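Many introductory courses stop at the sequence. We go one step further.
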Amino acid sequence: MYQEIFRQIQQRGVLRCATALTGPYVGSKLLYGEAFEQRLGEATASYWDDARIALLETKETRLLSIGDDQFLVELFMENPHMVICGGGHVSQPVCKVAKMLGFHVTVADDREEFLTRDRFPESDELIQLDFREFADRIPVYDNTYYVVVTRGHSFDELCARQILKRSYTYFGMIGSRSKVAATVEHLRRDGYSEEKIASMHAPIGIKLGGQTPEEIMISIMAEVVQVKNQHYCAYVNPGVVEAVSKNSHGVMATIIRKEGSSPRGVGSKMWVPYGGKPVGTIGGGSVEYRAIQDAARVNGVTIQEYDLSSADSSKLGMICGGQVEVLFETMG
């Protein structure tokens, strides 16, 4: 099950996973995205149909109650990509800082002389294309941040028309307010939805009054970081992904609820392989030690609460207070 979840995260970059915690299908999961859905476990399609609207409205990792049932909804956002349309002066500092922030960066332009390693030494890919070929040349990847800063507004609009037909995490387009307004009217006239149009950040960037390419870059990247961090995501330790890929027999321990100052957040995971060394963490200390012992006794799916309140924390070797609930899932 988790092998498939991790595969989809790697393939798409953005994935939401709902896990049933109560009711007849405890442990069943729904993987879903903007245009993707996959069921794991025994829950029927009709079961998920009843929960779909509330699940789609949930934008971050959290516990969710729907009627009498409870779900853990996890938002995974890994390996962000940035596609910069246009190889001009603004693109250079944007590429440099995006790479510093961990993005896989592609720069696309129709001018070969602008797409050189001297100008973009940090880029992962340099793609020369006619902007009318954008949709055919740039692969779809859900966790992509599109920065459209071409040399002309007509090229910006060409890119916008193609980007708006795909999924993305962020799409920003440069241009004056009057030119952006004209583009929006063209898009409405041609049947683009108001929801899609509203998802554009145009004019691009946080308004800082920048004039130089470097100042404009700061406004763009500030907005990118703001979007990137607007929702609380589940984090998967790369070691957990690697360990599960090598051995899918064990128990996954996931924090599903926390109160107080517990050291790890909802969605934190620890993989306890049968007969092997645990990978990842749900907080360390004696609580984690107890969870590892409990994992050895798990059969199926169960939830265990650990109390880190001041009365018990000293006994558990923890300096923080609060409570955590941990979901244990047997795999293999």
